[in-house]
Design a protein that fits this description.
By secondary structure, the protein is an all-alpha fold. The protein is about 85% helix and about 0% strand.
Length: about 130
Amino acid sequence: MKAEEVKKDLKSLKNYTLAINKLRETQETHIMRIKMLEKMQKSEKINSIIERERKLLSDLDIATKISEAQEIEEKYMKTILSLSPLDRSIILDAYINGQAYWKIGVAIGYSEEGVRKKISKIIKNIALSI
């Protein structure tokens, strides 16, 4: 497998992770709105708004994004888990947890550029292992 393919897949995984988190936040907002509306005095208008909120909730389709992320994770997880603890932590934080490189660097004592270089090496190692 080529390193570019691994990098592309891991970037997709990161994007799915970020999208899932945003969708979850949006879901929480709509659930909160519904709860607030349900406490209000019932009227045709309130019922209509509640139904629209429920429709928006059903349209979020978080399950599909989670399934797509899982497919990528399953492809790479065995190899990622076989990495050294530091490399594993960096890859998981960067691509599965969606953390910024500078935050990872602060946590492990690397610069942002150092994290980028380390990730590039890790991706090459993953590509060779698969």
